[in-house]
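Hi Y.,

Following your request, here is the sequence exactly as I used it, all 78 residues.
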Amino acid sequence: MRRRLDMEAVVAPEISATVGVAAAFAVNPIVGAAVFAASKVLGPLWSKVSILRYRITGPVDAPQINEVLRQPRKESQQ
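Below is the corresponding structure, written out as tokens. Let me know if you'd prefer a different format.
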């Protein structure tokens, strides 16, 4: 008997501006300040990263992985 897969995987990447701001300050404080200000203004947009869904089917040794329609992240999923 061969084992088969029939599942869905959900990937919800988190994006943080902290690393980018710290790197910008290390390179150039003026650029760092600009990146920090932009991160405060654009922060709500960064939290709306798409949720990726994949359908995984077929035998365990040769699964078929297909991307399902992307959906915007809802406020309650943060």
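The radius of gyration is 19 Å.

Thanks again,
Q.
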